[in-house]
Structures are given as structure tokens and as C-alpha cells.
Specification:
Layout (H helix, E strand, L loop, with lengths): L20 E2 L8 E4 L23 E4 L6 E5 L4 E5 L12 E3 L23 E7 L2 E6 L4 E6 L11 E3 L24 E7 L2 E6 L4 E5 L12 E3 L23 E7 L2 E6 L4 E5 L12 E3 L24 E7 L2 E6 L4 E6 L11 E3 L23 E7 L2 E6 L4 E6 L3
Parallel strand pairs: 1-22
Antiparallel strand pairs: 2-25, 3-4, 4-5, 5-6, 7-8, 8-9, 9-10, 11-12, 12-13, 13-14, 15-16, 16-17, 17-18, 19-20, 20-21, 21-22, 23-24, 24-25
């Protein structure tokens, strides 16, 4: 898809609340995995098992029929369904990160290794490669070939020299082109690997999916070089720096990064080729200097964001997980520009509404801190982190 942009600023005034088009099927998610309420409507205690999830922050379908991979963040494991689940509460087929389904703990309460995890967050699959942001081990794990059994070890580690390393920036005071610090997001597209190196306030780009441990990145965005980690590149918020990058996606030739700390989505019309290339425009703010959540208002609008963590392309709409507003926004992907307004919505009744589960109990069509989104065909996979569940939700007709 080619990206047509308009740079007309502030195209929708903040006090306007246009009627929202439905982004996803009005009946709610087709399948809910993880937390299920008890018969009295209350949440049940979360214990590790083949069907439970604790604060999942990433999930994706490798294809229309599966596999489905979920970062079960709070249990420090990956959950894998070999086939796409079709029923609520379906148990996973196997997991990676723990000795068995009934165990939990960072790095399985043992040493770091090629099959252990510590707060896994971002998950991406493309061309048979699985990438996982193992955030609190300050590394990215790669499987060259989708894992097919419990405890399958990763083939490649990035951010560390080997699978035993787990220190931020390998224990150094400053980052390098081969180190990571609280990396929360990964994306695979066009043969490239993108890593949201959140703690270093930057995005790293690998021109080819790495095949050796500790491989260096080819490009950095958010900083002017590989050894700087300043918030907003050491200046006031602008087009070049970032505060809290979390997710990356491609929209045709365009590159998009969720900058949750500055409450915006940064957009480059074309893939940058120079370190620190400034973005062309942002969503969620009226200009490059804006950083306030909901544009400094308590209630949101169609053109405002509050800690957006996830972003993906679903058909002809760009979907943003507007996490702290507990909603999903849909933008016309062919007409994006500075401060553009969303046209579609899920999780809330209107653009001016906010609140976890609409200030009520969890429902099939409600959200509580949706952390990430991934599209496969017409299905949106939602890591509904605050509800301890993953949703498979179809696009609106």
C-alpha cells in the first residue's frame, strides 16, 4: 500500500467528537484466551497453567490457521498454539521458558539460557522466523524456524554476546550498536528486523535478519549515533528524538513507531537510511513539540493518544493500541498526516470516552490496557494485558 499524506495541521478540533465507525465486529472478540470470569462475574486467581495468561504483552498469528504465539509476560514464558484456537479458553499446546505449564519465575528461577525468559514482551513472525523481545534480559531471541516443541532453544541472541548474558548494554555505561536496554518491541518486514530499544530511547534496524549472536545493528533512529541514549535525543521533543518507543510497523514504504512516552506515533514516509533521520509527521499531537497525553485534556478525542504501545495495519486501516485510554483507534491508512484524526474505534462507545472496560466488568468488546496488536488477514490479535487475556477479534464488515 502506498501512503498518501496530507500535512494540513489540526484537521479535527479537539472539542469535536464525530461519530466513530466500528473498527471491529460489534459482537466482540470471536475467541478469548486466558482470563475467564467466575460465575459470579469476579476474576479468578491467576495460576500458571496451559490455559492461563498473566499480563500478556504480545501475540501474533503466523498464518490464518496458526500457529499462535503469545508472550505470557507475567509468567515469563511463550505460549504456542499449533493451530488457531476456535474456542474460548483453549489450552496452549506447549510453552517455552518454564519446565512445565505449572511453573513460573524469571528465567525459570535459574540461570539465563537460550530457552529462558524474563518479561517477554514483543513477538513477531515472518518467513518462518520468530523474534521475541526478552525485555528484562535486555536481549532479542530469534528462532530460525518456528519452534515445534516445549523448551525449544533460540538460535540467535541479540543485545548480548551469548545466551548467558543478561545485563543492560552488556554492563557498560553507554550503549553500542550491538547492545540493548529494556527492549520491548520487535518487528519483521521486508527482510529487516526492527527493535524498539526502549531503555536506550531508540529503534535499531537490522538490514537482514541476524544469523549470529551479538550481531550489530545497521541503523539507529531516535539518536544521532549508537552511543547516545538521551531522552528525546537530548533536546526538547521534536522530529528526531524519542522518549519511550515500544512498537514498530510498516505501511507500504512508510515506517511507524509508537513513542508511548511522548504520547504519539512517529511516521517516516520512507525507510530512513541515515542515523537519527527525523520523522515526517506524528499522530496524537498537533505538532512535533507536543507530548501531553490526550493533548493536555482529561478526556480523549479522535486525534489524541495516551501512552500508545501497539500499532499494526488491518486491511486499509492503521490500528493503534491507545493503551492508557483502553481503546483501539482505526485511522484511514491512505490519508495520514500531522495530527490526523481516527475514523474508527473499538473498546469504547465514543471518541470522548475512556476507562478500563468502560468502567465496568470485562466484556467481549471491552479492553483494559491493550498493550499490543497484530493483524493476520481480517483478524486482529489483541494482547489485552490488563484483563490477562488475548483476543482474536474480526474486522468490522
Amino acid at each position: 500500500m502506498s501512503l498518501t499524506v496530507s500535512l494540513a495541521p489540526d484537521r479535527l478540533r479537539r472539542h469535536d467528537h464525530p461519530a466513530a465507525q466500528p473498527l471491529l465486529a460489534l459482537g466482540g472478540a470471536a475467541v478469548i484466551l486466558g482470563q475467564q470470569p467466575a460465575s459470579d462475574g469476579l476474576a479468578v486467581p491467576i495460576v500458571p497453567g496451559p490455559a492461563s495468561l498473566f499480563g500478556p504483552r504480545g501475540a501474533c498469528l503466523a498464518g490464518p490457521d496458526g500457529p499462535l504465539v503469545v508472550a505470557d509476560t507475567g509468567h515469563h514464558r511463550l505460549m504456542v498454539w499449533r493451530r488457531r484456537p476456535v474456542e474460548d479458553g483453549a489450552p496452549a499446546d506447549f510453552q517455552i521458558g518454564q519446565p512445565d505449564f505449572g511453573r513460573e519465575g524469571r528465567n525459570a528461577k535459574g540461570p539465563v539460557g537460550p530457552a529462558t525468559l524474563n518479561v517477554p514482551t514483543g513477538v513477531a513472525v515472518a518467513n518462518g522466523v520468530l523474534a521475541v523481545a526478552d525485555a528484562w534480559n535486555h536481549r532479542v531471541l530469534l528462532w530460525h524456524g518456528l519452534p515445534e516443541r516445549a523448551g525449544a532453544p533460540a538460535d540467535v541472541v541479540l543485545g548480548q554476546a551469548d545466551f548467558a548474558g543478561c545485563l543492560a548494554n552488556r554492563g557498560a555505561d553507554r550503549p553500542g550498536d550491538d547492545t540493548l536496554n529494556w527492549c520491548y518491541g520487535v518487528a519483521l518486514d521486508g527482510g529487516r528486523l526492527f527493535v524498539a530499544d526502549t531503555g536506550n530511547r531508540r529503534v535499531l534496524v537490522f538490514d537482514r535478519v541476524p544469523e549470529r549472536n551479538g550481531q550489530a545493528a545497521d541503523l539507529v533512529l531516535g539518536q544521532g549515533d549508537f552511543v547516545t541514549r538521551d531522552e528525546n535525543a537530548g533536546r526538547a521533543a521534536g522530529a528526531g528524538g524519542m522518549r519511550w518507543p515500544h512498537a514498530v510497523t510498516r505501511l507500504g514504504e512508510a515506517l511507524l513507531v509508537t513513542d508511548a512516552g511522548d504520547n504519539r506515533i512517529m511516521v517516516w514516509r520512507h525507510q530512513p537510511g541515515v542515523h537519527g533521520t527525523p520523522c515526517d509527521f506524528v499522530l496524537g499531537q498537533p505538532d512535533m513539540g507536543g507530548v501531553d497525553h490526550n493533548r493536555a485534556a482529561y478526556f480523549p478525542t479522535a486525534d489524541a493518544l495516551n501512552m500508545p504501545y501497539g500499532v499494526t495495519l488491518l486491511g486499509d486501516r492503521l490500528v493503534v493500541a491507545d493503551t492508557a485510554n483502553s481503546r483501539l483507534l482505526g485511522f484511514d491508512a491512505g490519508d495520514l498526516g500531522m495530527g490526523a484524526a481516527a475514523c474508527a474505534l473499538a473498546g469504547q462507545n465514543g471518541f470522548g470516552d475512556k476507562g478500563d472496560n468502560r468502567w465496568g466488568d470485562a466484556a467481549r468488546d471491552s479492553l483494559c490496557w491493550p498493550y499490543n496488536v497484530a493483524a493476520c488477514g481480517r483478524t486482529l490479535v489483541v494482547a489485552d494485558s490488563g484483563n490477562n487475556r488475548v483476543l482474536l477479534w474480526e474486522a468490522a464488515p
